[in-house]
Each structure stands twice: as structure tokens, then as C-alpha cells.
Amino acid sequence: MAAVEREWKPTPTDGVSTPTSLLQASTEDILKAKYLSVNLNAAAASPSSSSPPFEPPLNKNAHLQYLLRNLRQGFPAHYISQSASQPWLIFWTLQGFCVLGVGLDGQTKKQTVETLLAMQHPNGGFGGGPGQAAHLLPTYAAVCALAIAGQPGAGGGWDQIDRAKIYDFFMSLKQPDGSFLVAHDAEVDVRGIYCLLAVATLLNILTPELVAGTPEFIASCQTYEGGFGNASFPGWALRGSVIDPGIARPPLGEAHGGYTFCGTASWVFLQPYLATVYSLPSQVKPVINVKSLLRWCVQMQGISIELGGFKGRTNKLVDGCYSWWVGGCVGLVEGLMGSGSGSKVDEHADETKADQDGEWDDVDDSLSNRRALQEYVLYAGQHPAGGLIDKPPKSADAYHTLYCLSGLSAAQHRVLPSAQRRATLEAAWKDDPSSEHNALRKEAFLSALSWVEDEGTAKFVGGPSNRVNATHPLFNLTVTHSEGIMGYFYKQTIPSRYAKKAA
Amino acid sequence: MPRVTSNNSDDEAQLYCEKSEWQDITPIPQYDGINPIAPIFYTPEYKDATEYFRAIVKADEVSERVLQLTYDIISMNPAHYSAWQYRYRTLVALKHPLDVELELMDAFAIKFLKTYQVWHHRRLLLTALRSSAPSPLSIASKELAFIIRALSTDTKNYHTWSYRQWLLAFFDDEELWEGELPYVERLLETDVRNNSAWHHRYFVVWGRVRAEGEIDVGDVLKREIAYTKDQIALAPNNPSAWNYLRGILEHTKTPFNSLRTFVELYSTQTAPGEEDIVDLDNPKPGPGAQLPCAPALEFLADIHEEMGGEQTKKAIEIWKSLGNEYDTMRKKYWEFRVKEALSV
After folding, report:
1. What does each C-alpha distance from B71 to A99, B6, B281 come to in angstroms?
2. Which range of residues forms the domain containing residue B15?
3. How far apart are CA A120 and CA A124, in angstroms?
4. Does A71 contact B162 at a Cβ distance shorter than 8 Å?
5. How many helices (H) and strands (E) does chain A have?
6. Does B177 map to a domain?
7. Please, what's the b/e burial string for A215-225 (b: 16 or more CB within 10 A of its CB; e: otherwise)?
8. Pairing mode of beta strands A415-417, A238-239
9. How many domains does chain B have?
10. Cβ-nearest to A252 among B32, B162, B208
11. Residue B308 lies in a domain
12. Which InterPro entries has this protein been placed in (chain A) (predicted)?
């Protein structure tokens, strides 16, 4: 099989070597060697030169076995470092199955629900394990894992989530600058705010009081590079416990892929609040710089010799997990800029979609290089023994396995806000007479669930057998699981996303 | 050397369940009556210590022995945030000297540099010490020196940098700030591509909030542009330096066009010849420069776009050349820029 000619130009160093450029060069050597060896092995296995250009398969079976081993047999002792992140281990594993299109049996679901409920704190929220303090990060992971494995009813998990106490827990973490501690006596961090907003949106516990000041905080974490840092410093702007909006709150920490995803997703989650609460002309709406955010995100994509993977910071190395944190974030930014089906006429509806490179470009109007990102995951992200990785020669772990797969999914599918889907959901919406915040909650529900796959735009490097499921760009759950849990907690019947066949 | 552990070095290998002084506690297993999914295979030491920790938390015990127990747990798992939280509360409740705790944690912080909790714990300690210690500034200054030591083992460690920025802002004393620019410059001399150092520079120069009239922003901007141009001349294909330059121009609302002469030196194929007049304001690319460099082309296109009118065509030409030749990975993005410019 013939491989496609590839550009192997290294990152230019201008003849000046520094620790950064030396590490970069050795990484480029490793990635290039990996690419060539994958192709060489494929050529040895199938020496016919007339076959189409080789593209590596996603070794689904090996990855499923890896996930299954973790789920059934458990994790080896070096995962003690993750023993305060047990809901994450479960979420990464279950969501890995979902992205690979594998459902869970009833017994596994039951066992999962029991395990997660053992981590719910008596005062609200979930801890990293039983008997651990509640923390925003495991609360997100536990609720998302319950969205996958749970259901209503006794022992189903959903009715056992103490939503009122989660809300109280959230409020107890709130700071005067609109941010939240991740746990009592712990740090403020954009990741925690993402987790809080995702959970509040999924469980229908959003209130204006909860998120007052939060958009301004998120905006303050954007750095001069365009991405987000991990927090900002409120001290200069604080007058007692009130923020003076005229004084800057500089970001702490440089622009970073993880925080940029969390900051951007938080910003999207906060749009319903901004839309319903900042309606008076006298109110100054906080803003972020979407243009510089987009620029930063696309600048993080590595060049050809880096196989098109994403970096997490300027002048750092590509890593498979940023396929999701930054690759996925490009989709969120596109959503913020108003791309998506229904907001424009589908120019390509009549075109036939031949499986050719040129055609790929024609029908792809996303702003990152989706083909290259898929190549990175397929060539560099797969461990031969199953599971996915940062980059060769690292070993697989639960975290990289999910975020490489989710990143691959984000590169295969375009999931964007659809005006049409929104209209359908809105037509079916029924106000909940018991809820005080119908306007905000309706908007949160419609905004979150209007993200659906832009049909006909999926692209699979390596062919359709490499297809993985689409994931919701805000939650990293499938759209089906997002709809399932939200429909339940918002008491809505969600219309099917698939057109009914004519009778 | 800092004191690493406290009272019981004799029986280090002993499990808590074997220690006579812990016999009053009934350990609590992690999972009671359920068969957990995806379990971790703990070492006997970790399992033992965390079972006693759960019992302590449940009983709300505040005692010296809690300090030993939490120390043992975070030594095995520095990400055990509940053990850190409980330790901090115990230190405060027992009125334990916090400067002693800070020193105890020095070796720990270096060893577990990448863990959030080690830095947050120091932040809690420094916060408390600012209002209680006899000379908080000397503690802060010592802490800045310690952070330099930590960063010397990993010059881009995220939490360490974030912590340093917090510390400077929190104590906000000229004596502390004044060493920062020389420190950044030392780091950039070693590695001009260290983006963490560039970000720190931005924080120190532009993030710090000062009293009105304390500095002349025009002078500072002039100094920063000159410094950044020199760093770009040294290694033109360095996105960190270009991002800094863009950042400070946007922050001060300075038109990109004001740097056109400089940028043009880097957006052409060949470096200008030796015989050209030396222009100190516009340092020329070094001998090894690989030109044109993509960040300069992007910058020049932004200048054209900023000028508008007829110049938009030039911007479009450059974006096309980036997409087709100089930065093909981002072809989609450059096409988007073209589309945006045409739609205006």
C-alpha cells in the first residue's frame, strides 16, 4: 500500500537551540519515526501497490479490551495517585465505551450506580471516593457517569442524586469575585467552574443567584494570547466583598488547553444567564475576545511533522489529550461565532460526496484541520496493546484513552447549535409550574440541547470502520445521554432527532 | 535540610492497625457492602492509612496524630485533597506554627511539583502568615526564592508559575516586584521560547495594577517593544515573542501598523544585506533566520487589514500564501480570514 507523501519540514529554529527547541526536535523525530513505522508495517502486511493510500485503522477491539480490563479487573497500584479521582476513572472508562459505540449491561450499570452513590457526600456533591470531601471535579464526573449508567427509580441513581444539597454545596463555594472554590479550603480554578456549570445545567439547578458575577470572572481569565489561564487575581478590584468593575483582575497562569476548554465551555453555559438577566441597556455585558480565542486554538495545532496533534500551550509539545481540550474547543468557538446548521443555507446539499481529498476540503468548513487531527490520534495516539496515549512511547492510561477518543470524535463529527433543533425543542417545551426560574432554565435547556450533529459532514480518516460516536461538545456525553438526563430533570419529553419515516 | 517527618521514625514500616496508640480507632473500609466497579488495587500501607483517615474524619478528631496520618497519606498520594484539607484545618485548630509547616513542605513541593495541592497548601499558609507573622515580607521574599528553586527543575511548571503570580499580587510590595523582570530576563536568556516566562513578563509589566501616574505607560511600552524586537531578531520563528508583541499592542491600543518597518524585515524571503544602515529601532534577523516567518506574515496581514481599503487585497494575498505555502496546517483558518475580510 502506498502512503500519502508528507511534509517533513521540522519546526524552524533559526539556528538557535534552546531547551524548548531541543525537546521539540526530539519529539518530531519520534512522531515521524512512528508514522513511518506504522506505514511500513501496513505495507509489509499488504504489499499490493494498487490499493488506495493507506490510512491506519482505529484498533477498536484492543481499546475495548483495555477499557473492559480497567472496568472489570480494576486499576493497578500506581493508580493510587487517582484514588481521589475515582469518579473520573469511572467516567473516563464508561464514556470511552460510549464513544466506541458499546452499551453497558444491566449488572454493570447497577454496580456503577452503587459505586458512585457511595461517593456522594452527606452535605451535598460527590467526593473523589467514599468518605472524601465533596469537590466540584468529581461531582461533574459522577453526574456524567450517572447520566450514562443511571436511570430514574429506586436504585437507578438519578433520584438518589441530592440536587438540593448539591446546590447548597455549590453556593457554599462561591467567592465575592464570582468564582468558586473547587472544594472547601481549596483553590479557585476554571476547571471547577466548568464542572459546576455542566452539573447545574444537566440537573436543572441553575439560578441567577448561583452564577451572578461568574461571566465576569470567566472573562477575566482570558490572557493576552487568547486562551484562558487557570484563575484571575481579584485583590486589586475587591472593595470589601464587592468587585469594582473598573479595576482589572489579571489572569494567573498562561493560556492553557485545559483551562481554555473549560473557560470557553463555561462561557457557552453562561449564555442563557446573560441572555435572560442582562436585558437592561444599563447593564454592561461582560465580553470575551472570540477572535483571539479562535486564533489561539488553531495556533495550537501542530504542523505536519507533529502529525497535526494539538498542544496545550505555546511552545509546548503536542499531546493526545488536547485533541479534545483544544480540538474540541474549536467546535465550541465555532458555535459562539454562529456557525451551525440552520444559521446558513447548506451549500453542499446537492454535491455527491466522493471519497477524495479535494472533495473533503470542499465540504469541510470547520476551522481546524480535522483530517490531520484524526491522523494524529490514529498514528501517534494508539498504544499497540490497547488504550490511547499522550504520544509514543508513553503508556496508555484511562484519561488519555477517553480524551484521544473524544478528540477523534470531535474531528470526525461536527456538532453545532442548530436553529431548527432549537425550534423543535421550544415547540415541545412545557413550563414547570414548580420551578421559579423557568425563563433561565428553559433557555439553558434549549441552548444545551440544540447542539446536534450537522448531518452529512462527518469524515472518517481510514474509512467508515473507524467511525466513533459523536459527543456533545459541552458535556462530553453522547447527545442521547445528554438528552436522557436533561429530559428527566427538566421534566420534558424530547422530540426525536431522527425524522420519522412517512407512513 | 528541612525536617521531613516527625515523631515515629522507629516504627515507619508499621501499619496503623498495628500501632498501640491507634487502637481506640475503628478503621472504616472504603466500600462497605458493595462490590465497586473499576477498583484500584491499593498497597496495604495506603489502604490501612486511608481507612484510619475516614474514621478520623467521621469522628471529627483534632489532634497531633492527625498530622502524622495526613502526612503519611499525602506522601503516598499528594493529590488526596481531603487529607490536605483536613491537615490544614488541624494545623489551624492546634495553632501549630505555620512557618514550620511551610518548611516541612519544601522538599515535598519539589518532589510533587506537578500536584495542585502542594502549591495550594503553601498559598493557605502564606495567606495566614501575612496577617500573623512578625515580618510577613521576609517570608514572602523567602518564598519567592523557594519558587525559583522549584522552577529550576521545571521551568514551565504551570501551578508554580500561577502561584508565584498570586504571591506577588497578594503581598504587592515593590521590594518583591523589583526582582521579577531581571528574573524573567535570565530565564529568557536561557530559553527565549519559554512561554511561561513571557506570560510572567506580561503579568509583571501589564497585569500588576498600580496607582494612577505611578509609571509612564508610554515609556514602558517603548521599552517592552524594544526588548521584544530584540528577542524576535534572535529567533524569528518564536510564537511566544510574537504573541507578547501582539498582546502589548492590543492592551495599549497601539496600531499594529506602527511596527510595519520592523515586521517587513521578517516577512520577506531574504534577510537584508550587511551593507544596510544599522537601525537600532528595527533590529535585523540574525544570520540563521529562516524567513519569511509565519508569525511575521500574519502580523503584516493584520496591518493590511487594520489599514483597510485597498490594503485588504494585500492581506488576502498573504493569508492565501500562508494557507498554501507557509502554514498549510491552518489552511482552513486562513481561508476563514479571507472570507471574513471579503464579507466586511
Report:
1. 40, 9, 56
2. 1-96
3. 7
4. no
5. 20, 6
6. no
7. bbbbbbbbbbb
8. unpaired
9. 1
10. B162
11. no
12. FTB (IPR026872), PGGT1B-like (IPR045089), Prenyltrans (IPR001330), Terpenoid_cyclase/PrenylTrfase (IPR008930)
